[in-house]
Amino acid sequence: MNRLVWALRHASLFCAWLVAVCFLLAPAARAQQVDLEIVLAMDGSGSISSDEFQLQVIGTAAALRDASVQHAILSGPTGRVAIAAVIWSDAAFPKYPTEWHLLNS
Questions:
Q1: Residue scoring higher pLDDT (105 or 37)
Q2: The pTM is what?
């Protein structure tokens, strides 16, 4: 099956799953009021190489260190954003949701 067709067929299922994860994880972040709750979805499956996975992690870390991103986080009414990540893998391996983390500096 064409990789693009496969991806499009599974995109709606993944989106529904991601929304469900957001609702399941949200109560932990609600202990403190935040301006935004972000869930980062990262591919940890066998369909990507370890270099591609590392690129996702390094790119995410670089984005969170970027001055314009930090300014956006601090510029909201509370100056806080809650962030969590979900790393999904192949069907044989579990998905790994992280705890919520508070970004405020």
A1: 37
A2: 0.60
